[in-house]
């Protein structure tokens, strides 16, 4: 979940438009080899996480489990800035939309108990919601209902930190006209899973928090997973932070967890999320048939679960953003490998960080990025020459470069501007999205490099 809008991490080229993206989901890293993962290079993982924390790129925790055993569990950075409290492997993070996997599991448990079906109309529970007679449970699970995403509107920012009861949120959702007819298309909406959480409460006659404990936590043997409340450092819960713009961190907002509910209120640790994924795929939470329904993918999303491959290896999981927290969790059934990365501060794309981790876990060629600040100062005349608007024949996008102080800022069409850091003569970077721009000394053009992609932009 992400603010504003608690939006799903999505898979698209436009990573560098200031949004966190799952680069490794696109499969752009090539075709996988048949070799299984060998001995885990824990020293390289240590080096990567230490570099991220030392250079104020990220703080959080990473857990890697194989065959049901934790093979790597490492925290980096701080759980709290003032007074400073180092993060540990016991530190708990708000998991955002990873909650949706838990909610989907409980819905399928109720289906197996014959308390509802994928075809049950929403009107059975909440007839006041738009299109309730034609929306079915399947469409809520797969984000194909057309219910408007309440967290996508500016009004949400006015009440996100305040407690809300079910009746209030249902009233808010009832006011929005549907975005499209049920089943017409996929469009991620947190409203779907907030409503599913309410259905779990109605059918089970108990709060979501209690259902979570009974139906998932106890069955999977989780130790640090629960419905969150106000952040409490006495429970080893991390606070979240955002970049200051000067290389440091400042406190981020704190959403009241009464609103995200079944869409994003779970608090946990990476090791516990790994354990949850292992229990799910081992048949401890739902039947093989139900898991198959969850894994049926359309438009990149199944029913509460996302397709998350890496270099051709099939993977399943979910991402989550809420306030300054970001998490990614993925399970690779062929390798019986579960990996969860959770952060409470980031100035580096989470998808890239997870791609780094996966490259190490699967023993792919990988070099830890150099995050050291550059001391290179470009000439003012060069900055004047670089400034302008550029277009590419490869993608329908324009980028405007503006001289600011001793460097440049970049702004893509319809997006916010972001600063570029000078690296060397004609070379600039933006680490948060792993962008590198290389200007041609003879032509008014530059190469934009991001991951394995290179695009040529020419000044208009």
From TrEMBL:
<dbReference type="InterPro" id="IPR012338">
    <property type="entry name" value="Beta-lactam/transpept-like"/>
</dbReference>
<protein>
    <submittedName>
        <fullName>Beta-lactamase family protein</fullName>
    </submittedName>
</protein>
<dbReference type="InterPro" id="IPR001466">
    <property type="entry name" value="Beta-lactam-related"/>
</dbReference>
<dbReference type="Pfam" id="PF00144">
    <property type="entry name" value="Beta-lactamase"/>
</dbReference>
<dbReference type="InterPro" id="IPR050491">
    <property type="entry name" value="AmpC-like"/>
</dbReference>
<feature type="domain" description="Beta-lactamase-related">
    <location>
        <begin position="61"/>
        <end position="347"/>
    </location>
</feature>
């Amino acid at each position: 979940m992400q603010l504003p809008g608690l939006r799903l991490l999505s898979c698209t080229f436009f990573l560098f438009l200031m949004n966190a993206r799952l680069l490794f989901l696109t499969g752009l890293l090539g075709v996988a080899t048949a070799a299984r993962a060998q001995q885990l290079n824990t020293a390289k993982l240590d080096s990567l996480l230490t570099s991220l924390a030392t250079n104020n790129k990220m703080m959080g925790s990473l857990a890697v489990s194989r065959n049901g055993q934790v093979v790597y569990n490492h925290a980096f950075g701080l759980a709290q800035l003032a007074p400073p409290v180092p993060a540990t492997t016991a530190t708990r993070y708000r998991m955002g939309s990873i909650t949706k996997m838990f909610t989907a599991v409980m819905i399928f448990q109720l289906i197996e108990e014959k308390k509802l079906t994928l075809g049950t109309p929403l009107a059975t529970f909440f007839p006041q919601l738009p299109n309730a007679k034609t929306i079915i449970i399947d469409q809520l699970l797969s984000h194909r209902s057309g219910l408007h995403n309440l967290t996508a509107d500016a009004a949400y920012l006015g009440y996100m930190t305040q407690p809300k009861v079910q009746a209030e949120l249902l009233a808010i959702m009832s006011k929005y006209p549907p975005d499209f007819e049920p089943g017409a298309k996929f469009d991620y909406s947190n409203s779907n899973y907030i409503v599913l959480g309410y259905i779990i409460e109605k059918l089970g006659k108990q709060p979501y928090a209690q259902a979570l404990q009974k139906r998932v936590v106890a069955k999977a043997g989780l130790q640090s997973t629960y419905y969150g409340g106000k952040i409490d450092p006495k429970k080893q819960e991390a606070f979240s932070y955002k970049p200051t713009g000067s290389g440091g961190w400042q406190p981020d907002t704190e959403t009241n967890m009464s609103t995200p509910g079944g869409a994003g209120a779970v608090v946990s640790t990476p090791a516990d999320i790994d354990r949850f994924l292992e229990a799910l795929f081992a048949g401890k939470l739902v039947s093989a048939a139900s898991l198959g329904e969850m894994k049926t993918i359309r438009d990149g999303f199944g029913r509460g679960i996302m397709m998350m491959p890496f270099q051709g290896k099939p993977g399943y999981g979910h991402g989550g953003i809420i306030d300054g927290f970001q998490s990614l969790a993925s399970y690779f059934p062929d390798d019986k490998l579960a990996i969860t990365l959770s952060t409470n501060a980031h100035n580096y794309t989470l998808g890239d960080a997870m791609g780094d981790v996966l490259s190490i876990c699967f023993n792919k060629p990988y070099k830890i990025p150099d995050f050291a600040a550059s001391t290179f100062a470009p000439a003012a005349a060069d900055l004047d020459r670089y400034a302008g608007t550029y277009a590419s024949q490869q993608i329908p996008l324009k980028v405007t470069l503006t001289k600011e102080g001793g460097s440049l800022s970049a702004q893509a069409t319809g997006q916010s501007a972001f600063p570029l850091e000078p690296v060397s003569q004609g070379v600039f970077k933006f680490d948060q999205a792993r962008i590198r721009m290389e200007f041609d000394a003879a032509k008014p053009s530059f190469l934009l490099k991001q991951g394995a992609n290179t695009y040529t932009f020419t000044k208009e």
